[in-house]
Amino acid sequence: MSRALVAAVAAVIGLSGCSGAQEAPPAAGTSDASTAAGTSSPAVTSSGTETPPPPPNGAPVTTTSVPAVPPPGMPRDFPVPPGGKVTDASRDGQLTMVVSGVLPEKALGYYRTSLPPAGYQVVRENTSQLSGDEVVSIDFAGKGYTGTVAIDQGQVDVVVVTMKKG
């Protein structure tokens, strides 16, 4: 995933804004450890997650799935989609978490249904265009935080979550 794309999606989040304040529960999940034999690129499982390609010698790949957790500074129980991998995090005035490994439509459905029971109120949902791709932004508030989940509906499996106190 390119840093430029992450920056662009983060910029869209900044434009959509954040407001409100509430709370959130744990995200649990596992990824499908099956592999697509004979392929050289990641396979997408029925749950929408990617599995690594098999090694060149054709030996089976064994993976162990551990639920992903948010980076330090973010609420430890903030929802992370099953199979999602927290691949980047920063704290430049706001908390930012990048999650990969989940198809956009799965991530969108997950956050639409997981934020409210986790104690985060969905304040607003916006759709915008970024380099020809549709980006859906879900603004939320909870546990003393306001934030945005941005999901690129294009060909990239990236979810950017930003939040700040207040």
UniProtKB/TrEMBL annotation:
<keyword id="KW-0732">Signal</keyword>
<protein>
    <recommendedName>
        <fullName>Lipoprotein</fullName>
    </recommendedName>
</protein>
<feature type="region of interest" description="Disordered">
    <location>
        <begin position="18"/>
        <end position="92"/>
    </location>
</feature>
<feature type="signal peptide">
    <location>
        <begin position="1"/>
        <end position="21"/>
    </location>
</feature>
<feature type="compositionally biased region" description="Low complexity">
    <location>
        <begin position="24"/>
        <end position="50"/>
    </location>
</feature>
<feature type="compositionally biased region" description="Pro residues">
    <location>
        <begin position="68"/>
        <end position="82"/>
    </location>
</feature>
